Amino acid sequence: MLELHQFRHSAFCLKVRMTLQAKGLSFREVEVTPGIGQIALFRLSGQRQVPVLVDGDDVVADSSAICRHLEALRPDPALIPADARQRAQMHLIEDWADTTLAAAVRAALLQAAADDPQLRNVLLPDDVPSPVRQVMSGLPGGWLSGLGELLGQEQRSSMLSSLCAIADGLDLNGCLVGNAITLADIAVGAQLSLLRFPASAGDALAGRGVPGISDHPRLQELFRWRDQLETRLINLDPATAV
Ligand SMILES: N[C@@H](CCC(=O)N[C@@H](CS)C(=O)NCC(=O)O)C(=O)O
């Protein structure tokens, strides 16, 4: 059985779960505790970041490497285009989503959590004991700034204009590259999930997100595209199609 070592609310881990789902592969989720759990992860994979996939003797780190491993393991449905030009486009979009977009999304979410104690509380891992949870979510947002850069004005407007450009060019059932779902859609869709959490994030988070972005009028269609993408992914696998 495949094993996915993850942080539940990481977009990179969601990217891998969406790929596993598209391919109809069953897997076991292993929740890594930030900090202490990363020591075991380092022993397992030689690095401390999630996601890590364990497939028998193969231990694969990095969402893009994992998705390519899964493509080789279960080539159908293909999530990497056969056409070289489309493959290049897919690669560029996936790389943009995993780097530039991911950095802006992470900063935007940290900013939102810094401003909103309730959001801070639901984002904390489940195994944080409740007294610690109370203290952490009650503190002014400042403690979060140690985790990374908050969102600068320039980064925010650059992310917004990229997302609006994507939203303008995409139908509800459209694809970013060609006419079939690829890793480009999955990588972008996964990052969007941190800007407005989908139903799959659980009741406490569903519909919440980054103020000013999750409720931005020009992005509503894009968030609907994201929700629709999850349904379309399930239907790609003939065994689970409804
Ligand atoms: N390029 C990597 C990025 C993975 C990544 O940034 N993982 C974060 C969680 S979202 C992590 O493990 N952070 C913990 C750390 O860096 O110690 C991928 O695509 O998988």
Summarize the helices and strands and which ones pair or pack.
Layout: E1 2-6, H1 11-22, E2 27-31, H2 37-45, E3 52-55, E4 58-61, H3 63-73, H4 84-115, H5 117-123, H6 130-138, H7 142-145, H8 153-168, H9 183-195, H10 220-236
Parallel strand pairs: 1-2
Antiparallel strand pairs: 1-3, 3-4
- Reported CATH architecture of the largest domain: Up-down Bundle
Determine the strand fraction and express it as a percent band. 5-15%
Shape: globular
Average pLDDT: 90
Could you state the order of secondary-structure elements as H and E? EHEHEEHHHHHHHH
Small-molecule binders: glutathione
Residue share in helices? 40-55%
Main beta sheet strand tally, sense and closure: 4 strands, mixed
Description:
The protein has a four-stranded mixed sheet with strand order 2-1-3-4, with helices on both faces. The mean pLDDT is 90. By secondary structure, the chain is an alpha+beta fold. The protein starts with a strand and ends in a 6-residue tail after the last helix. It is globular. Helices cover 54% and strands 7% of the residues. The chain has two domains: 2-73, Glutaredoxin, CATH 3.40.30.10; 84-236, Glutathione S-transferase Yfyf (Class Pi), Chain A, domain 2. It contains ten helices and four strands. Residues 7, 10, 12, 38, 48-51, 62-64, 98 line the site of glutathione.
